[in-house]
Design a protein that fits this description.
With 739 residues, the protein is of the alpha+beta class. Among the domains are: 58 residues, Helix Hairpins, CATH 1.10.287; 88 residues, Nucleic acid-binding proteins (OB fold (Dihydrolipoamide Acetyltransferase, E2P), Beta Barrel), CATH 2.40.50; 152 residues, 5' to 3' exonuclease, C-terminal subdomain (DNA polymerase, domain 1), CATH 1.10.150.20; 73 residues, Rossmann fold (3-Layer(aba) Sandwich), CATH 3.40.50. The strands form nine sheets. Strands 2-13-12-3-11 form a five-stranded mixed β-sheet. A hairpin with a 7-residue loop joins β18 and β19. The radius of gyration is 30 Å and the shape is globular. It starts with a helix and ends with a helix.
């Protein structure tokens, strides 16, 4: 074996640890790549690959099937609670038994559970949870995940437990590069990647494994005094105090701790020695230092290496595992409730999915005494946030035509309560997904809703005798025109005259975040299409008061409001207009980048394909969509018509270092504003030094509430965020302009 090979593997793994686990790179990509290439060449020439070589992470050949793996120690699920009152009852029951207990609080990740087995410091097996006793061997897949160490300092045997996740940013990046076959959500993307027989698929998803616990660990030849050198932790964390105090457990069991016992405290992560008298025939016992070294079972010590969850996390960190960036402790039910509130508030701003929090007793000795039910440990509970997934029956699938001609299937459901709203419609993405998930009408399906995202069907719960397959349409459901299908999507070829395409295009143009023409809902635009022959964006600017009032349901006030809203839209920002045009694969962020780079519509029209592709985060597909749009004569003609009817754009101006009355404030606008278009209000906030957000999170410190403000206002109240009315908002703007 080459010494240089060992040196390269050690160096590259250290660089990867700093990059992926610590999020603190210490070398450039160029330096890393040079060493990686050297290692690859050396492995090829010697025909040797070390067990912890980073070259193993790219994914090997497709596997024939999953083998079974029997866990060293059973994996339990967690009992659940969904209210603070339920959590309080669970907490106080334990406090009543032990007098003083420290609890830990962690995120409950929404991913796929995985169990990692190490022996002699090397990763031997990675397996799914399965039934808790036997899981599927997914070692080849997990080895591609760069946050999983292939080698650790601890030389004994251990199984560590974690959650495989795909970050929201990784999902967005993947979908940007694969627009023809996008992934729908982070949880399914992670689970699908791990339970895929092709490890290269796993490698392409950029997954993480967040490790949170140690299930099984051997302690042969373990020396407490030298634990740090063996991947453990120092015998005692400085300043750490045991959660145990003298108390009476209940009528059935007494727990006695003497001062003498306390003075002989085991110097191993803060566990106190104590005598325990059990009414079930357990003899009184005293845990001595010698007992601890020999791990005597009747001492109740589950592990000599660490005796608290806090110590367990330190052990995991010392061995190079990626752990959660949120780990708190609390000693009262009120303190736990406060931590839960904080986690729930920051949930939306996280780069990964969580569906609750996990609360555990910190002391492993108390855990051992509390034990397990048939299904759950008694020392831990999962606090579940409001349900984001439920099961209901799919009754029908209707096909909606988008502005690009793409047919989008929409599920019609039996109404179900989900995340605080009644859901009766859900997206199905595309026909390819329908086939892959085996979606059938009259079957029971899982529906997921996260925050303000459109509900989606994530899978099948149960098929029934009357379940029937979903059939793709043979002609366009909107215009009866010819269809074209690729491997994923179905398209209407009649993009010029299809009612669905035109209505969708105009609805997008008028929507909030685009030209923000208040009152122009999809239903209203359908009425314009059918009754006023509106066929283009330019036709919206040709509408007049008399024409609107001739339509059923359009009285004078409604007609006047729409005409006024259309007129206000004639003064628009460049980024808003670019987004409103509905260029395929161009969202609000991409539109802002285009405006910032090319400054004007003329600049956009002159831009080369290479210049567009050079924009940060732009891929080849998006760049081609933009370039082709501005080379289409029909599109340029329509833009010219829009400008001839009075639309004037404010060319983009960079605004570095702006200060003003909103400096340091992150502002959310909610409800209906009477005096301002939403886009105008956002521009004013930014011009006076502030930032704007669409969601209420812990990063937001001001909410402007207009008429009919809903969930965002309620959440702001819950988080204690400053709330002002539109009148107060106007005064701030006026004062800012005077200043």
């Amino acid at each position: 074996m080459s010494d240089r090979m060992s040196e390269l593997v050690k160096t590259l793994n250290n660089y990867a640890y700093h990059y992926y686990v610590l999020d603190n790179p210490i070398v450039s990509d160029k330096e890393y790549d040079a060493l990686y290439d050297e290692l690859t060449a050396l492995e090829k020439s010697l025909n040797i690959t070390l067990a912890d070589s980073p070259t193993l992470r790219v994914g090997g050949d497709i596997l024939k099937g999953f083998k079974k793996y029997t866990h060293k120690k059973r994996l339990y699920s967690l009992d659940k609670c969904q209210t603070k009152e339920e959590l309080k009852k669970w907490t106080e029951k334990i406090l009543a038994a032990y007098g003083a207990v420290r609890f830990t609080v962690e995120y409950k990740f929404d991913g796929l559970s995985v169990n990692l087995f190490y022996k002699d410091g090397l990763l031997q097996t990675a397996a799914t949870r399965g039934n808790g006793t036997v899981g599927e061997d997914v070692t080849a897949q997990i080895k591609t995940v760069k946050t999983v160490p292939l080698k650790i300092p601890f030389s004994g045997e251990c199984e560590v437990q974690g959650e495989v996740i795909m970050r929201k940013s990784a999902l967005a990046e993947y979908n940007e590069k694969n627009p023809q076959d996008p992934l729908k959500n982070e949880r399914n993307a992670a689970a699908g990647a791990v339970r895929n027989l092709d490890p290269k698929v796993t490698a392409g998803r950029k997954l993480d494994v967040i490790v949170y616990g140690v299930g099984y660990i051997s302690e042969e030849n373990f020396n407490t005094e030298k634990s740090f050198k063996n991947g453990g932790i120092e015998p005692r964390i400085p300043g750490e105090k045991s959660a145990l105090k003298s108390n009476i457990k209940d009528d059935a069991e007494a727990r006695i701790t003497s001062e003498k016992d306390t003075e002989k405290n085991i110097e191993n992560d803060g566990a106190e020695q104590r005598k325990t008298i059990g009414s079930k025939g357990v003899k009184a016992r005293k845990i001595t230092g010698q007992d601890a070294e020999k791990n005597i079972e009747n001492g109740g010590t589950e592990s000599r290496i660490f005796t608290t969850q806090t110590g367990m996390i330190e052990f995991l960190k010392n061995n190079g595992f990626k752990t959660a960036d949120y780990f708190k402790t609390a000693e009262t039910s009120a303190a736990l409730a406060a931590e839960i509130t904080e986690i729930e508030a920051r949930r939306e701003s996280l780069d990964y999915l969580i569906d609750g929090a996990v609360i555990k007793v910190d002391d492993l000795n108390i855990r051992a005494e509390l034990g397990y039910t048939e299904k759950f440990p008694r020392y831990a509970v999962a606090y579940k946030f409001e349900a984001e997934e439920a099961a209901t029956v799919l009754r029908d699938v209707v096909w909606q035509v988008s502005r690009t001609g793409k047919l989008n299937p929409l599920a019609v459901l039996d109404p179900v309560e989900l995340a605080g709203v009644t859901v009766s419609r859900a997206t199905l993405s595309n026909f390819s997904e329908i086939k892959r998930k085996d979606i059938r009408i009259n079957s029971r399906v899982f529906v997921r809703r996260s925050n303000d995202v459109i509900p989606e069907i994530t899978g099948i719960a149960e098929h029934f005798a009357d379940s029937v397959p979903v059939e793709p349409p043979l002609v366009c459901p909107s215009c009866g025109g010819e269809l074209r299908a690729d491997s994923v999507f179905i398209y209407c070829l009649n993009k010029t005259d299809c009612r669905g395409v035109i209505v969708s295009k105009l609805s997008h143009y008028a929507s909030r975040g685009a030209m923000d023409i208040e009152g122009l809902s999809e239903k209203t635009i359908e009425a314009f299409y059918d009754g006023l022959n509106v066929r283009s964006i330019a036709d919206l600017y040709r509408l007049d008061f008399d024409g609107l009032t001739a339509l059923d349901g359009f009285r004078d006030k409604k007609a006047r409001n729409i005409i006024d809203a259309i007129e206000r839209s004639k003064n628009a920002g460049l980024a808003d207009f670019i987004y409103a045009l509905g260029i395929e694969n161009v969202g609000k962020k991409a539109a802002k980048e285009l405006a910032a780079n090319f400054k004007s519509m003329e600049g956009m029209e002159r831009a080369s394909r290479a210049e567009i592709e050079g924009i940060r985060d732009f891929g080849e597909v998006t760049a081609s969509c933009v370039y082709d749009f501005f080379r289409n004569e029909k599109n340029l003609k329509e833009i010219g018509e829009i400008f001839s009817l009075g639309v004037k754009l404010k060319n983009y101006e960079s605004k570095p270092g702006r200060t003003g009355v909103f400096s340091g404030k992150n502002v959310v606008l909610t409800g209906t504003l009477e005096r301002y278009k939403r886009s105008e209000a956002k521009e004013m906030i930014e011009s006076l030094g502030g930032e704007t957000s669409d969601a209420v999170t812990l990063k937001v410190n001001l909410v402007v509430a207009g008429a009919d403000a809903g969930n965002k206002l309620e959440k702001a109240k819950k988080l204690g965020i400053e709330i002002i009315s539109e009148t107060e908002f106007q005064k701030m703007i006026e004062n800012g302009k005077r200043g």
